[in-house]
Each structure stands twice: as structure tokens, then as C-alpha cells.
Write a structure and sequence with these properties.
By secondary structure, this protein is of the alpha/beta class. It has helices at 9-17, 23-41, 49-65, 108-115, 158-165, 182-188, 221-231, 275-290, 306-321, 326-329, 334-344, 348-368, 394-397, 409-412, 442-453, 455-458; strands spanning 44-47, 76-80, 119-124, 136-137, 141-142, 171-176, 191-194, 213-218, 261-264, 294-297, 374-378, 417-424, 430-436.
Length: 459
């Protein structure tokens, strides 16, 4: 990766303003990284170099004239192939999608990025319909981790995380229904943020209902805040979208965390961590305390809600596949069909019971946050495992949520949750630290994450 391809969006904006580099040069660096590495990593399903360079030239002209549209202007950007993109197919990792189109509109997050002048370079891989925690699909094959191509980057936004980690674009828009932004961030050493539910408008709506979120995958927490300023805006196509925040998510992000109350849970009472993960996360919690936060290790907050999550998830998968007949379904990932079959057997009462579990979790977490500003956990109990597997062990491959126990509860509560790198194991694999805040307190979570990632500058 060249130095230019490894710059953050904030750094690029500063360099553009100082005329030290340009959007065209940054875009060429991203495209060169794709040329160099994507044949091995398989992070992209589509790259449009001509469109990207045209958009970069237009951005460069704005920066030269002093009419740039903000810090996202000219930033090389990729989009997970579950989000609609005007003029580009959205194939969702499945043979059931027809690439003929037409493709007349952008999803809200893509529209906001385009309006802000971001340079869209292409679309990244997803498992079929984004259904699992790793990234491979019948249509596009296996996506690999830039740190070790024998390993998975996680999923379902694994293509986005691999692209960002490899310098193949500065940042990316992912989706997260149970950890799909945070898990690949943890596995690739990037930053992944799932904001408060409905903060980023959704269209078309996801089949997984309240579990579905969109979020940035970036090289820094500051970049996640910058992107959220752009994409965290309402859209008329999403009736539930929240109003835009007054001010910026970067306001106060450098203020530190002195006096913040942090509840630390090593395992939420039901997880089992790799010893190196446990040690690195504990060290990170010590850093947070050293920055002035009041840290307490807490008692378990709730029992593992995996059964309720699986009910909601399988019902969503069944709904996704419901329009297709037997001939079509013969081309679908067999493991995905098993999930759909389970979903078809779920009764309305069972579904409502699962929704009641979400409500109870939300209440428990609201009470927790009366005493604590932020909850801290590992992002994932382990590290990246071999590519092509659905889980780290054959048993865990049957239910992907079994190896992501710390992420999906906060899709169920729709709270903001951030994964930030907190070190590497002896074998060089990254580990993620998850920070969770109350609903609508996204700025607080970002501020805590920023304090941690800049700890070296503050010591």
C-alpha cells in the first residue's frame, strides 16, 4: 500500500486544502491498489475507473476553486453491494439478481455521499443477501483478509473492510444486521460503526426489520464521524428516518473522556474469549481508565438473546427468499436455504415473543446507561479464521451468531456500537474493542473511541 492509499479521509482533506495532493492522485492510488491486490483478495464485484476518475477531476476543480463540499469531497469510496447505486448493478452476491437493470437510483447513503462529492470507485462483496458473518457467495466466491489471504475478513461487510484495510479506497459503506460492520472491522484492523437505528436512512427497507443498520467502515474514528455527518441524514423514502443532527458528529470528538463512566464486561456473562483477545481488551480498558474515565467491571446484564435473534434473523431470510420458486432456489447457498426453512416454520406468536425480548433488552440497557455512559466489551471473542468457513469451528459454522455473541444484542436494542482496533495477537491478527452507548448518543461513543485511538498523542 502506498502512503497516499493509506491516508485517512481527514488527512486527505487537509492535503487537498494545502495542495499537497489531489483527488485525482488519491483515486489513482486507490485504483492502483485494486489492480495490485484485488485479484487475490476478491473484495470488489465492480470497479468503474472511468467514472471514478471523472468524479475525482470534478472534485479537484472544486478544491482548486475553493468550492469543495466538505471533507468527504474527493475521498475514494466503495459501497457494499447490498446498497443501490445509480447506473451500477446491485447483485447482492446471488445468481437470483439480474444484472440487466435498469439501475435508476441510489440508496440514501450513496445519494448523500455522491452529493458530498465523494468519489465512488466501485462495489464490494457480500455473502448472498448478506446473510452470514463471513464473506463468500455462490456468485462471486471467497473474499480474503488483506493481513493474511488464507483468512476471512469476516462479514457480511467483509469486502468493504478488506478494501479499506488494503488501501483500495479510503472508506466504505457497509450494512450491519448482527455485527456485519463491526465483525469485519475487528478482523481487519479497521474501524466499524453501527449508529443508532434509523440514523442512516434505509431504502429499500431490509428484510430483517429493526435489526438492519448501515454504517461506515474507515481507517479512523474521526473518519467514521465525518462520514456519519454525510450519510446520517433523513430521506423521504424512509418514513422512520431520524432528523439530521444539529451540528457535526465531529464536534467535541477530541474532548477526551475524563469523568466518563464506563461499564466493562469481558464476556457479557455468556461469551468465551480467546485468551489473547481477553488480555488485549483488558489492556485497552486500562488505557481508558488512564485517560480519566471511571471504569468498573460489571455483572452480567442479560442472558444470551441468541434464540430470539435467530428467530428474527431466520424470519427475515425466509421473507427474502419468499418470492422465488424451486428452480431459482436451486441456485442458492444451501446453508442459506436451511435458514429460510427454519424461518418459514416460525409462528407469528414466536416472532412477537422475539420482539418482546428486544424490548426487554432495550429496557435493561436503558437502565444500565442511567449509571454508565458507555459499555465496553470485546467486539468478537476470537480473531480471523480460515477463509471459506462459516465459523471458526464446524459446530459454530451451523449458526454464525454463535461466534459473534457481543455484536447482535445491540442490533436488537438499536444502540450505537463502535469497533476500534486495540492491538494484535502474537501472530499479528487484529483484535477489536467494542464501545456501546445509549440510543441517540452516537457522538459520545465516537468521542470515547477517538480518545482511545489517539491515546499515544495524549500520553
Amino acid at each position: 500500500m502506498t502512503a497516499l492509499a493509506g491516508m485517512t479521509a481527514a488527512e486527505l482533506a487537509g492535503a487537498y486544502a494545502r495542495r499537497e495532493t489531489s483527488p485525482v492522485e488519491a483515486t489513482r492510488a486507490a485504483l492502483a491498489a485494486i489492480e495490485e491486490r484485488d485479484a487475490e483478495l476478491n473484495a470488489f464485484v465492480l470497479v468503474d475507473a472511468d467514472a471514478a476518475l471523472k468524479a475525482a477531476a470534478e472534485s479537484e476543480a472544486r478544491w482548486s476553486a475553493g468550492t469543495q463540499r466538505g471533507r468527504a469531497d474527493g475521498v475514494p469510496t466503495s459501497v457494499k453491494d447490498l446498497e443501490r447505486t445509480r447506473g451500477w448493478p446491485t447483485l447482492r452476491g446471488t445468481w437470483l439478481a439480474d444484472d440487466a437493470g435498469p439501475w435508476p437510483e441510489d440508496s440514501p447513503s450513496v445519494a448523500r455521499l455522491r452529493e458530498a462529492g465523494a468519489v465512488l470507485i466501485g462495489k464490494t462483496t457480500t455473502p448472498e443477501f448478506g446473510w452470514k458473518g463471513v464473506t463468500d457467495s455462490p456468485r462471486f466466491g471467497i473474499t480474503r483478509n488483506p493481513l493474511d489471504p488464507a483468512l476471512t475478513p469476516g462479514g457480511s461487510s467483509g469486502g468493504s473492510a478488506a478494501a479499506v484495510a488494503a488501501g483500495m479506497g479510503t472508506w466504505s459503506v457497509g450494512t450491519d444486521g448482527g455485527g456485519s460492520v463491526r465483525v469485519p472491522a475487528s478482523f481487519t484492523g479497521t474501524v466499524g460503526f453501527k449508529p443508532t437505528g434509523d440514523l442512516i436512512a434505509s431504502y429499500p427497507p431490509g428484510s430483517n426489520g429493526l435489526l438492519s443498520h448501515r454504517g461506515p467502515i474507515t481507517l479512523s474514528v474521526l473518519d467514521a464521524a465525518i462520514m456519519l455527518d454525510v450519510i446520517g441524514r433523513p430521506d423521504h423514502r424512509d418514513w422512520a428516518a431520524l432528523p439530521a443532527k444539529d451540528g457535526s458528529f465531529t464536534d467535541g470528538i477530541e474532548a477526551g473522556i475524563e469523568g466518563l463512566t464506563i461499564g466493562y464486561s469481558p464476556d457479557l456473562g455468556y461469551g468465551r474469549n480467546d485468551p489473547e483477545v481477553a488480555s488485549l481488551v483488558a489492556d485497552a480498558v486500562g488505557v481508558l481508565a488512564g485517560l480519566g474515565a471511571h471504569v468498573s467491571e460489571i455483572e452480567p446484564l442479560f442472558d444470551d438473546p441468541v434464540d430470539a435473534f435467530q428467530t428474527l434473523w431466520c424470519a427475515g431470510v425466509a421473507r427474502t427468499l419468499n418470492p422465488y420458486g424451486p428452480d431459482d432456489l436451486a441456485r442458492v447457498d444451501p446453508a442459506l436455504l436451511e435458514y429460510a426453512e427454519r424461518g418459514r416454520g416460525i409462528t407469528a406468536v414466536e416472532y412477537l415473543d422475539a420482539m418482546a425480548v428486544c424490548a426487554d433488552l432495550g429496557l435493561r440497557m436503558a437502565r444500565f446507561h442511567e449509571s454508565y455512559d458507555v459499555l465496553v466489551t470485546p467486539t468478537v471473542p476470537g480473531v480471523a479464521f480460515p477463509a471459506g468457513q462459516n465459523g471458526p469451528t464446524p459446530e459454530q459454522s451451523q449458526v454464525w451468531a454463535s461466534w459473534t455473541p457481543y455484536t447482535y444484542p445491540f442490533n436488537m436494542t438499536r444502540q450505537p456500537a463502535l469497533s476500534v482496533p486495540c492491538g494484535r495477537t502474537r501472530s499479528g491478527l487484529p483484535v477489536g474493542l467494542q464501545l456501546v452507548g445509549p440510543r441517540h448518543q452516537d457522538a459520545r461513543v465516537l468521542r470515547a473511541g477517538r480518545a482511545y485511538e489517539t491515546r499515544g498523542q495524549q500520553s
